[in-house]
Design goal:
This protein is α/β, with parallel strands linked by helices. It has six helices and five strands; from the N terminus they run E-H-E-H-E-H-E-H-E-H-H. It has a five-stranded parallel beta sheet, sandwiched between helices.
Length: 126
């Protein structure tokens, strides 16, 4: 059994989640990928993650997913980080307003995944 802390990622992009998985593995976390909002809900019902990562470019409903997580008492305080392309400033700003923290560029999420997760955990438990 893998007892490393779990990160659940809403990330349908195979290339991106493989990069995230590598970064998390190095940082001592394990990854469960949820390809869409329904799979994310299923994953949250089955396991208690240390953090969530949301790919804001996963679909039109990524912001609604964050808003729903923050509105639900069972997930309202769960560490939650989000990422999108660095040119998508409006989407990054909307995610921050919805309750994701930190909100980072896609490249930073891929390169420094462990640090992004640790920042989200520190912010949530701060």
């Amino acid at each position: 059994m893998d007892d490393r802390p779990l990160v659940i990622a809403l990330c349908p992009d195979l290339m991106m989640w493989s990069r995230i998985e590598s970064g998390l593995d190095i940082a001592g976390y394990r990854l469960r990928v949820a390809g869409g909002p329904t799979r994310l809900a299923e994953a949250l019902a089955e396991e208690s993650p240390a953090c969530l990562l949301i790919d804001l470019e996963a679909g039109d409903d990524a912001i609604a997913v964050i808003e729903g997580l923050r509105a639900d008492p069972s997930t309202a305080t769960l560490p939650l980080a989000a990422f999108a392309g660095h040119t998508n400033v409006d989407l990054l700003d909307r995610a921050k307003a919805a309750g994701a923290d930190p909100v980072v560029a896609r490249g930073q999420a891929a390169i420094s995944t462990g640090k992004v997760v640790e920042q989200a955990i520190a912010t949530a438990t701060g």
